Known about the structure:
Helix content: under 10%
Mean pLDDT: 87
Number of helices: 5
CATH topology: Methylamine Dehydrogenase, Chain H
Structural class: mainly beta
Radius of gyration: 21 Å
Number of domains: 1
Low-confidence stretches: 1-28, 31-46, 441-463
CATH superfamily: YVTN repeat-like/Quinoprotein amine dehydrogenase
Amino acid sequence: MGHIQLAIKLAGACLMVLPQVCLAQTPKARAPDTNAATANAPLRGPEGLPPIRAVTRGPKFHWFGYYDKLQFDPTSRYLLAMEVDFEHRSPRGDDVIKIGMVDLAAGDKWIQLGESRAWGWQQGCMLQWLPGTKSQILWNDREDDRFVCRIMDVATRKTRTIPQPIYTVTPDGRMGASVDFRRIQDMRPGYGYAGLADGNKDQLAPKDSGIDMVDLATGKGKRIVSLADAAAIPFPGRNMTNAKHYFNHLLFNTDGTRLEFLHRFRPNRGRGGFITRMLTCNLDGSDIRVVDPSGSTSHFIWRDASHILAWSRYKGVSGFFLYEDKSGGGRVVQVGKGVMTRNGHCTYLPGGRWILNDTYPSGKRREQEVYLYHARTGKQVTLGRFASPAKYTGEWRVDTHPRLSRDGKKVCIDSPHGSNGRQLYLIDISKIVATPAADEGGALPEGNQGMGAGWIPSRRTGS
């Protein structure tokens, strides 16, 4: 459609926005809550922290979920979110959430787009903008006895359905990786979807459950790695006898040539704690590599096409390590030693000089810290500390999961600190990343160069 635009009259002014996103006329566009006097006002903390504002508000609850998805459109004006009317319990098969986006240039108006019956508290319904497009989004849903993926053009509201759920997409938006969300729900509630039982619940490593590569234009999928395939790969030092296996946390590298996925298993037929190793493969399932055999891989992000930053254990030390994805094994280098000392959800900013990260709740106030780490100097810049009430624990906890805008100037988080449940907050980091430290010349230390999958080059996003 090209650069189609629609002029919308709003409060006597003419705004150029995505076509058919008519904020002034459609009932699906909700105006800001005028009773919340400070809802949209930028706030600055007592320690000179960067400006932050709530972009969603009650009485309903809003969140986005995981940190490795594109929440912002290519212009960084619209951000995606999900809306629900309850908290503090597991989703049921009949629970429906609303899909929408917030217009940051029009008073943070909520624009409803759709709904989903396939979601969890931690990763939602895999809602995200489709790379390589200006106005298409995707999310997972349930249709009769199967999970599916909806792809919508928010400009026209035209929607099509892919007959498999999608976990992650290539940087050009052409291919998606699908995984068995029924299996995930059985193995770790909160990350899979309620409503459909795992048909292989009694099988430890079924051949007919695994990862499919899906053509997002045609909807055709092909199995590339099964759980049986992964279970057959030797795991020195670990006993996988009677272990129950599943896949989770899939992500394509920055040029779309390889797929990372976590192979997890629980001993004692699924009753023990899970053990994790990080694997990668080509898009056809060939050349499977065990990148991290520690059994402790946690949150990760691709720095570039051949390096993955991940929280794990290496030679008895816990921390963030940069793993080289190389046949036969590659180098492993610790990143943020003595600074990034706690597990968190990491993303590289454009250029790779900054890493965006967070922490889990700690201290009496159960504060979650969101911060930037400057790779060259090793300095940490705190963006905020957000209290998480004790009732937000376990499956329905609210991790901040910081997400970066496409222009690299804003960060969006999920948080329940505002006394109105989980909501979305926007942090302005433009002045921080524009400081001389952000533009210092010279080579970065080994393990800190390049850009991560949290930032997709504009030539791929169409921005």
